[in-house]
Amino acid sequence: MSMLCYQCGNTLGAGKYCLRCGADVQMYRKIARLANRYYNEGLARASVRDLSGAVAALKQCLAIDKRNIPARNLLGLVLYERGETIDALAEWVVSTNYLPHDNLAQSYVEALQKDRTEMDLASNAIHKFNLALEQARAGSNDLALIQLQYVTEKVPRMVKAHELMALLLLDEGDNAKAKKEIDAALKIDCGSVFCRHLLQELDNAPRQDAAKNLSRVNAAMKNTAENVKEKAGRVGGALQGRAGKWLRFLLGLILLVCAIEGILVPTISRNRETAVNQAVASYAEQMESLRLRLAASEDKNEAYEILLQMSELDIDQDRDKIEELFLQLSITSADSDLYKSLYDSWRLILAQRSGQ
User: For the chain, percent helix, then strand, then coil, each to nearest 5?
Assistant: First the structure.
């Protein structure tokens, strides 16, 4: 693309001055070359799907030379690929204002203006993303996740929605689902620095948990060893007297009973606890699934409000209240099969805990 004079718009030749207005263009050429360097970097990054890096390089190019039409058009294409349709349209509109004729941005703008469905969908997705962002800042992660679920389903290319959803899932402790959202974002934009940080957090989480568990086990073993040593010293003197034989027999019997209780009772307790935990996890997962389906539905019925009330109640203390809400939910629920499975899981939790 030929270089134009910054003062009169005439095509520049190879000299130091503009042939029409006589303006000194030496410094202008240096600035234009620096801007083109950033444009070439952005183009190279975009070609390998490093969209974040491409956006940064192209914005730097436009900060130096705002009239660089190829850079502005490419920035619009990169933003569109990241699911930021409205921002991409803004860049193309500015581009057509600078160069009204023979500009590829004009065809991009016309294509979007004809497809009103895509524009409405993009606008709605941005609205819900901003709403999710506000809810996340207020600490309502569950409501924010519902909004983001809608956004990622309707606009799967929106990298920002995947990034925020991964962050919230990571904060909730659901590392598996967070990893899926990170992978989805990196598939679109392999240069997302935010996703790289989240992956690093995921890698560090198991190590930190293992280190904490190991320190707790070591401390418990140390305390146990010291207690055993102290008790052995107390009993040792008694075993030396006349009644040493009977004492040794009684001590062996006591140790055998303690061993049985120490092995069997914790095992039974752990099995019960595992069953309760599985029931709780199933209950929570199905409640969240039903909540997401109802929230995504265009028909806003009472079932969603009932689920929100149930999620705030304690499973053990508010049994009657939950039973009453379940009765209402059976009438208003849009998904009877999932409702029945949810109710069965809740009853299983109560049965397991009452058996402890």
Answer: 80, 0, 20
Burial of 230 (0-12, 13-18, 19+ CB in 10 A): exposed
Cβ-Cβ contacts under 8 Å for 296 (sequence gap 6 or more): 146, 149, 150, 153
Do 19 and 13 contact (CB within 8 A), yes or no? Answer: yes
In the chain, how many H helices and how many E strands? Answer: 14, 0
Nearest to 43 by CA among 67, 66, 69, 75: 75
Q: How far apart are CA 316 and CA 337, in angstroms?
A: 24
Contacts of 348 (CB under 8 A, 6+ apart): 279, 282
| pLDDT for res 170 | 87
Q: Residue 242: enclosing H or E segment and its boundaries?
A: none
Lowest mean pLDDT among 124-133, 142-151, 285-294: 285-294
65: tokens are 């030379």
Q: How many CA atoms lie within 13 A of 348 on its CB side?
A: 19
- Render pLDDT for 302-332 as a digit per residue (tens, 0 to 9): 666 666 666 666 666 667 777 777 676 666 6
CB-count exposure of residue 179 (10 Å: 0-12, 13-18, 19+): middle
Calculate mean pLDDT across residues 141-150: 89
pLDDT, tens only, 152-195: 888 888 999 999 999 998 888 888 888 899 999 999 988 888 88
Domains of the chain: 26-114 (1.25.40.10), 119-202 (1.25.40.10), 246-354 (no CATH)
| Cβ atoms of 157 and 82 closer than 8 Å | yes
